[in-house]
Known about the structure:
The protein is mainly alpha-helical. It has helices at 2-19, 24-79, 89-125, 133-196, 205-224. It has one domain: Methane Monooxygenase Hydroxylase, Chain G, domain 1 (Up-down Bundle). The chain is built from five helices and no strands. Helix 1 (2-19) runs antiparallel to helix 2 and helix 3 (89-125) packs antiparallel against helix 4 (133-196). The longest helix has 64 residues, at 133-196. Pfam families: DUF7799. One of its GO terms (cellular component) is extrinsic component of membrane. It comes from Rotaria magnacalcarata. This is DUF7799 domain-containing protein.
Amino acid sequence: AKQDNITELLTRADDLVTQQKSYNEVYEAMARSLGEAWKELNLQLEGRRNLLNQAIRFHTIAVRFIDQVNGARSWFSSLEQANFDNKSLNILFDEHDAYRKETLEASLNTLNEGQLLLEHVKDLGSLIESANQHSTIAACYEIEQLLGLHQDERRKFEDEWERNRKILSDYVQMSEIKHEIDQIFDWLEKQGKSNSDSTDLGQTLDDIERLQMIHRNIEAESQVI
């Protein structure tokens, strides 16, 4: 390994300095310069390693966001063919809220990680020679482009979520109307139709007056309906 070679070389230089007093200053300067250069290289490599690790974290979180969006869209599509009678509205609304919460959390994590990566690249770029600044500029541009695309995707998801929220809200209204219609049909079957089809005239005047009162009440209710 290069580290072993450098260590051996510095040791030999130290020995030579000890043996050759006349070259003391020269060898000391050379050894010191090499040691500093090696330390600087290791610092740069460490910075590069950290940068790559951070880039992996950013892209991993960004992919997680896309997976979250795709999962939500698949669920949105299922609403169009769902049999709402088999699923309570409370569960649907809870699931809808959960998709939004999880997706926006993934979006925020992506933006935060992307911003950290961008700042890291800029910090490292400030340490390199101006002749090599083009690589820093290109890297920053690419990250900013990815963050811009991410923002577009998040806004698109928000619009889709709002549209599907309206679908659920419309279904609530339809369910309420259906419930009222079912009640009317139930009344028609149990009260209205049975009375209108009845030929019962009773046995006495009191019976007839009672039946007449029932009929008037049904007529009054039917007019309200």
